[in-house]
Specification:
The chain is α+β, with helices and mostly antiparallel strands. Helices cover 31% and strands 36% of the residues. It contains three helices and eight strands. Strands 1, 2, 3, 4, 5, 6, 7 and 8 form an eight-stranded antiparallel sheet that branches. The chain is globular and about 70 Å long.
Length: 215
């Protein structure tokens, strides 16, 4: 099981890791939004291997056939990697009703775990020109208090091959991802709140059990 403690590891001082995404294609879509947990808690509660958040978010999107790998280290990148595959509904009239999707995720903390960088590369397999491009995103979460952090999110389309619809695809990718992020952040807030309520109930039950055992 991955945790926030696992995604930093000893490395050679002279070692250079590859960048996971193409920074030059990204445009900001969320800037300094306040989120109700620390950067470390974001990973542990929402992205950890034992979290059900990704399944809940994908269910809200009506995605199907979700397969989620566990986090693991890779020699070419710092931090942790994992792969997600699923089928996603297509809303574009030029596309089939749904498409197979693969998303590669990368996460890494700074040394004191006050800043989390979460990056994704998404590939649509069944849409027109799907093999020509990937959607890249970068989240930077920075802890600001014991119970909050700020979130900055950028997204863009990276083209592996030129195509005549490149400009339209770039615009559409940013627009669609922004909608997805709004839903994802809403589901994340709800998930954190429900987890908090479960934690309170468990604590109350434990206290009651102790009281009963002492009587």
């Amino acid at each position: 099981m991955a945790s926030a403690q696992d995604d930093t590891r000893p490395r050679d001082i002279d070692k250079t890791f590859q960048p996971f995404i193409k920074e030059d294609v990204l445009v900001p879509i969320i800037t300094k939004e306040v989120f109700p947990c620390t950067a470390e808690q974001f990973f542990n509660k929402l992205l950890n291997d034992d979290s059900m958040f990704t399944h809940r978010y994908r269910a809200e999107r009506k995605d199907t056939d979700i397969k989620l790998e566990q986090w693991h280290v890779a020699d070419e990148y710092s931090g942790l990697l994992r792969e997600i595959s699923f089928r996603s509904i297509c809303n574009n009239p030029m596309c089939p009703p749904d498409t197979a999707m693969t998303e590669w995720q990368h996460s890494v903390f700074n040394p004191n775990k006050s800043v989390l960088v979460f990056e994704t590369v998404q590939q649509a397999h069944d849409v027109p020109f799907g093999s020509y491009f990937e959607v890249h995103s970068k989240w930077v979460l920075e802890t600001t208090s014991e119970s909050s952090c700020t979130v900055d999110i950028k997204v863009g389309a990276h083209f592996k091959k030129w195509c005549w619809m490149q400009s339209k695809i770039k615009t559409g990718a940013v627009s669609e991802y922004k909608k997805d992020i709004e839903l994802m952040l809403k589901v994340a807030r709800d998930y954190l709140e429900s987890s908090k309520q479960v934690g309170i109930m468990d604590a109350n039950n434990e206290e009651m059990q102790k009281k009963n055992n002492s009587e």
